[in-house]
């Protein structure tokens, strides 16, 4: 085949075909992967921005929680209750009896029960029974909460007969006194 015998149209079409084939190969090998990579980078960049925004929010929350933990630890150290030895039960009962009397209540019974030992503290159940007016009973609850931070009220029962208002209100309180554990008490002595 002689190139001179070919008509110019065929030569032009052949050249156009070669250029089209080279363009397709260049696009498939070089341009298309670059476009896809760029599109992937754009998606990753938007994901990264989302992750950075989430990380910023979370770090703010972490800072808030850390500040709250610091505040709570400070409150705990400021309001730490110093537990006494269970051997001081008589002193504790005397203080309870004195507060009950100051509230205007007649004390009928005040007795401890067998204590329960734990690794960090002992719990001493205390039974208190008495009588007086309802406001005196409420006053006792208020004083227990303020003056005995190491003692909790397990139950509080007030009873009376509304048809006989001259009769005093009956009071029964079950208390739990938290005392130093035997192991800690032995180490501090």
Quick overview of this protein structure:
The protein is rod-shaped and about 135 Å long. The protein is of the alpha+beta class.
Write the H/E string, N to C.
HHEEEHEEH
The percent range for helix content is 55-70%
> What is the CATH topology descriptor of the largest domain?
Alpha-Beta Plaits
Content of β-strand: 15-25%
**CATH class group of the largest domain:** Alpha Beta
Secondary structure tally, helices: 4
Major sheet description = 5 strands, antiparallel
What's the structural domain tally? Answer: 2
Structural class: alpha+beta
What is the total tally of β strands? 5
Q: What would the principal axes of the Cα set say about the shape?
A: rod-shaped
Q: Uncertain runs with pLDDT below 50, 5 residues or more?
A: none
Radius of gyration: 43 Å
Descriptive tags:
189 residues; alpha+beta; Alpha-Beta Plaits; 2 domains; 5-stranded antiparallel sheet; 4 helices
Description:
With 189 residues, the chain is an alpha+beta fold. The chain has helices spanning 8-78, 89-102, 134-147, 182-188, and strands at 106-112, 116-117, 121-132, 151-159, 169-180. The radius of gyration is 43 Å and the shape is rod-shaped. It has two domains: 3-78; 86-188, Alpha-Beta Plaits (2-Layer Sandwich). The termini are far apart. The mean pLDDT is 85. The chain contains four helices and five strands, in the order ααβββαββα. 56% of the residues lie in helices and 22% in strands. Strands 1, 2, 3, 4 and 5 form a five-stranded antiparallel beta sheet that branches.
């Amino acid at each position: 085949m002689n190139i001179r015998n070919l008509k110019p149209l065929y030569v032009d079409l052949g050249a156009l075909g070669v250029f089209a084939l080279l363009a397709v190969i260049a696009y498939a090998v070089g341009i298309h992967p670059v476009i896809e990579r760029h599109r992937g980078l754009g998606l990753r960049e938007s994901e990264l921005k989302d992750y950075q925004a989430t990380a910023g929010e979370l770090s703010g929350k972490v800072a808030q929680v850390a500040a709250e933990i610091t505040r709570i630890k400070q409150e705990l150290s400021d309001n730490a209750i110093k537990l006494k030895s269970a051997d001081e039960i008589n002193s504790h009962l005397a203080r309870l009896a004195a507060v009950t009397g100051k509230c205007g209540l007649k004390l009928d019974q005040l007795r401890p029960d067998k204590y329960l030992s734990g690794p960090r503290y002992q719990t001493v159940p205390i039974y208190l029974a008495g009588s007086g007016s309802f406001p005196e009973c409420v006053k006792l609850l208020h004083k227990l909460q303020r003056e005995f931070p190491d003692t909790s009220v397990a139950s509080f029962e007030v009873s009376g007969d509304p048809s006989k208002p001259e009769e005093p209100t009956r009071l029964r309180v079950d208390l739990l006194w938290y005392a130093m554990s035997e192991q800690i008490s032995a180490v501090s002595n």
